[in-house]
Amino acid sequence: MNDERSLATNLIHGRKDAERSLVHPIYQTVAFSVDENEDYTELNEYDAERYFYTRYSNPTIRNVEKKLAALEGGEAALLFSSGMNAITMTLLKLLKSGDTIVASRAVYGSTLHYIEDFLPNYGIQPVILSEDELYRCDEIAPEAKVVFFETPVNPRVDCLSIPQVVAAARRCGALTIIDNTFATPINQTPREFGVDLIIHSVTKYIGGHADVTAGAVITDEDLIVPLYEARKMLGGIPSPQDAFLIDRSLKSLPLRMKLHNENALQLARFFEDEAPVKEVLYPGLESSSQHEVAKQQMKGFGGMLCVDLGSLSAAQTFSESLALLRNVPHLGAAETMVCLPALTSHARFSEEQLVAAGLSPGLVRISVGLEEIDDLIADCRQALQKIANGID
Ligand SMILES: Cc1ncc(COP(=O)(O)O)c(C=O)c1O
Q1: Ligand 1 centre and the CA of 323: distance in Å?
Q2: Which of 47, 72, 148, 375 could form a disulfide with 103 if both were Cys (CB 3.0 to 4.6 A apart)?
């Protein structure tokens, strides 16, 4: 990375390889040879100057890791084979039997499932807290070793105050881990607020084209080394092909996020004036209850929003009447996608549980893509019209 150049420029111009290839090549190899056996003394070192075995490290993968570390303002980064792999391996390595983990209740469903139901099998005690409780987690679980949270939160895009979580965690000496997937490092850099480890589902905006599954952890060198050891042993490194696709995607990440942010704000404003819409949830709207917190920690408000259409049947009519927008349980790609949390991520919730979680059965989550905004509005307008016409 060249410190005198902007981040956007560095994302495009990575390190030059030996052959000066314009695009960083795919080192599609399992292993690298040595000339002298003495070279093997570096075999197990995280920052070895040379490569030995791709399950340990690989130049195509390391090129992406350097860019991700710079993006988040961390000292080092590691790529993993999925977002869940990054989360599960990090927690497994940082915690041991007898430790306590505090986690926000408002995290991605599989993350919560892992922390609540899987970690106790290894003697790790989960303490799951609401937003208000998280800000005073030092009083509730002073023995906590790790505090795990996510903001903006899936699917309601609620924003937790990063400085408040960090302050409470520091009062009990716990490490903080944030899932920064929804915001991306273009819109939010939690290291500025003192968060220790940043995790991404690279599968979403960073990959950005719905064609690669990967995860990442960004932190300090002293924390990366044990995570590197864990990845080497448990085998969670992605393929060089996938790293190549991520490198391609990083070149356009700043540009893509700018358009995701702009399109989402315009679509949110459109929905605000439409009669069948009971509520629009988007932290970029001045009317949003999340706007003040978001403004203090986000540089852009992201591409995710929700609309409450009042009932599950209205949400179904809307999603099934769309001609351009696709009904997909994914987010963060060029294509605009909708999904109904009541039928997907929260399908196991009863109606009462949905209400308790602030999730109206009529909620539609929208991952706003990169299409021309007029086309998105036109499609949403005609689908809303079907609700007004009572067409199921
Ligand atoms: C916020 C968040 N974190 C983590 C994950 C898990 O990522 P992956 O699907 O890459 O394992 C997801 C997946 O949807 C997510 O939305």
Answers
A1: 27
A2: 148
